Amino acid sequence: MMNKLPIALCSVLAASMVHAAEPRHVVFSHFDWELVCDNTGTCRAAGPNTPVEAELQVASADEAPARVAMRIDGKPLGDVSLNKAGGKLNIAQTSALLAAVRKDSDIQWTSGKQRWVLSSTGASAVLLKMDEYQGRIGTPGALVRKGTKAEAAVPMPTPVPVLKAARVTGDDVDQGLLSKKQRRDLLAELRRTLVDKDGLLCPDFDENAQDPNKPDLRRLSRQQLLVSLTCWTAAYNSADAYWVVNATPPYSPVLVTTNGNEYAGGVITAYQRGRGLGDCTNTDSWTWDGSKFQHTESAISELCKGFPGGAWRMPSLTVKVIR
């Protein structure tokens, strides 16, 4: 039995780009490998010159084994203990793995008759991209393109942004907040926020707007409401659009997202699957700060590797929310 084995190398501490012209995050994939660096400069692939952790998960038709034996090019490297969250490689195993994925090595884990093989195709490009993003190319701590440039030139990590979440009045839908006529007037204003040069951003808006009980209304504060309406549906995904509006005319709607799925406690969340199995996903959240919803989380996993729900959480936006 042979399965491709997704694996993530995670840095405990990583450096961020400091130049304003540089992107605030990076999502990059090459063949069988993927890199996501968030707004703090932390990259889920590796973090040179800091403790590098390699985490392992296996996809098995049966219950995952409690222990697998690691071998690179036929050389035994000891066992890796697994639980529901996966397992961590030790320092020697991690070092051997980092060297092996940069060349055409036979990397595998076994348990009895089961065997899982890790593809190294794309690893060098992904690790080089991480070195580039973190400003490590040419330093001794680089994973791929090492050099003698001083490590002091590597930018320090960016602190995680902090957002103080505000209290909301309630979570429940309350259609009594506006009369039917007021909702019709509101829908006309909402629609205008969705029109761009390519047409309507929400294909299902007009159909759902015909429901006399729509849109859904929730109170955020005395002055502001949260409004939602089904925006689009697809084969295995659907989403609502969310707006913040004034409680009285003019409603002046501000569109938060057209990809929302749930709302609770001042947080809008989105979860979209790349395919029906749900082994590659996009997730986002927006948190109410008292005047608007701030984007506080974004994570992506583009490679569909057979793990329902995704093998790894790969953030591209990280914010510490204080309640």
UniProtKB/TrEMBL annotation:
Keywords: Signal
UniProt-recorded name of the protein: DUF1176 domain-containing protein
Pfam families given in the database record: DUF1176 (PF06674)
Signal peptide bounds: 1-20
Record organism: Massilia norwichensis
Entry-linked InterPro entries: DUF1176 (IPR009560)
Biological classification of the source: Bacteria, Pseudomonadati, Pseudomonadota, Betaproteobacteria, Burkholderiales
Record's keyword annotation contains Signal: yes
